[in-house]
Amino acid sequence: MNFGIIGSGMIAQFHAKAIKAMEGSQLRSVYSRNPDSSQAIADEYDCTAYSDLDAFLADPDLDIVTIATPSGAHLEPAIAAVRQGKHIICEKPLEVTTDRIDQMIAEGEKQGATISGIFNRRFNPGLIALKKAIDEGRFGQIAMADAYIKWYRDQAYYDSGQWRGTWALDGGGALMNQSIHAIDQLLYVAGPVKSVCATVATLAHERIEVEDTAVAILEFESGARGVIQGSTACWSKDGHSAEVNICGEKGSVFLADDKFRVWEFQDEGPEDEAIRSNLMTQSGAKGIGANDPCAIDFSGHQRNFEDVVSAIQEGRDPLVDGAEARKAVALINAIYESAQNGSQRVLL
Predict the structure, then answer these.
(1) What is the pTM (predicted TM-score) of this model?
(2) Which residues pair with 197 in a beta bridge?
(3) For residue 13, how many other CB atoms are within 10 A of its CB?
(4) Per-residue pLDDT at 289
(5) Is the dihedral of CA 220, 224, 227, 228 positive or negative?
């Protein structure tokens, strides 16, 4: 498969590295409105640089376009690309509102193009093991399902781009930008949320429109209760891991980034010893991306991209198709609605 990238900067670099590492795929081109930015990536990865979107999309040999623009600027290039017969892999969030996501999905269906999102943490061995345990009913009735993302971003981070911390282009703050991966993981393993009651605040940053701290109380359709805590105002020397905690009548599992802090079941299974030997977090482990977004490894993106390529070749939906990528945004939007209405309960 031949790939092209729309966007520049750190996220576009992640995409380029992931594509380069994939067997049977190549990075063919990169587009940015800033010709210097696209040329820099093209020089590093030996591909063609474009500063004209129409010319970039006119390439008949371009199969898949990855989108790495600011969050609220995903819809327009995605629609332009699918109308030229390209498949789409789009950074999280797929878009900043469900209305814009629905437009993207509808256009993909109309054009027969795959629309997929990037939730690279879904492809970590730890989450795969947790999902398997839930699907096998090992927890019994799940009582609590929580996500904790206590990260830190300094003021310079928000000042580094005019779009950061804005509703229009960031779509939100600590929840929509940083916490969305753990929120997606929580929904993927615990199932849909029935209602939410939330409060948000901006406590430690200036000149941003969005929250740096949020707490939401969830009621899942399964009957389980849960909490989401998301923040970019929690300083730590090494950074706190993003956690997904699942507790039920027959087991408890605490996933910290890609490893487990707790893996305990009332009824032991043959895989449990191997998991405790190979997938437990080490004392003092640093939170992945907790303090520094550049510290995230590209291997998760690679596995995400590989799944999309396989899905296209096999004629199936990718694991993170448009409908799946929409779920976390819908929940985050409901959290914002609850908070804006004075923590009133919002039904999803």
Answers:
(1) 0.96
(2) 217
(3) 19
(4) 83
(5) negative
